[in-house]
Write a structure and sequence with these properties.
By secondary structure, the protein is an all-alpha fold. 81% of the residues lie in helices and 0% in strands. It has a domain of 138 residues: Up-down Bundle (Four Helix Bundle (Hemerythrin (Met), subunit A)).
């Protein structure tokens, strides 16, 4: 027969529970599968870019010189700030601070929108110079890599806005809500990570 003392959690039990919580993998399993597949796809194009660059290095250097590094640098800053705000939002959500999490998500969405606007302007500048994906091999990869990334950002910004609105309206943040936020945060951090690779690879490395 179990006694009252048997049902009292021990220090050992509490430590085990804390340890299990620390080992909790953020996000859903499906989002991890998606992220791994997406990263593998981008990695393939990164390798192809490097291969063709070695074969046509002068052409790639000349074409790279036509890119707007200032816009690329500002966009890098935008995504870094956005990712930091997503981290702050997730921390606040775990503490049940819905309004703070909402404002942080809204800020992240704002920086993401800034990225989309500047990238659109950059594409328009290229179009005005009659530069497109058929111009040469460099621009084939420029438009593939930045275009795929641009598409990911365009998908991610409405997601951040959705989280911001949901958190603002929320009276109580459940564990399910936190899990969903973690999945969205993982996606957005992947978007940031991809740009951290794309920017130096395409814009900076001579």
């Amino acid at each position: 027969m179990s006694t009252y003392e048997d049902n009292i959690p021990t220090v050992k039990d509490n430590k085990a529970a804390d340890k299990a919580q620390e080992k909790h993998m953020p996000g859903d399993e499906m989002i991890w599968l998606f992220l791994l597949g997406d990263m593998a796809c981008f990695s393939l194009f990164f390798c192809m870019f490097a291969y063709y660059r070695l074969d046509e290095i002068e052409l790639f250097r000349q074409s790279q010189a036509q890119l707007d590094v200032n816009i690329g640098s500002i966009n890098t800053l935008f995504l870094l700030c956005s990712s930091w705000l997503v981290v702050m939002a997730l921390k606040a959500a775990r503490k049940g601070l819905a309004k703070y999490a909402s404002f942080s998500m809204a800020g992240a969405a704002l920086f993401g929108t800034g990225f989309v606007i500047l990238k659109t302007i950059e594409y328009q500048h290229k179009a005005a110079l009659d530069i497109d994906y058929l111009s040469n091999n460099f621009y084939v990869f420029y438009y593939i890599l930045t275009g795929m990334h641009y598409f990911h950002v365009v998908i991610g910004v409405p997601l951040l806005i959705y989280y911001a609105v949901s958190l603002y309206r929320s009276k109580n943040i459940s564990q399910t809500d936190v899990d969903n936020l973690e999945s969205g945060a993982l996606y957005w951090h992947m978007v940031d990570l991809l740009w951290i690779i794309i920017f130096p690879l395409v814009y900076l490395i001579p």
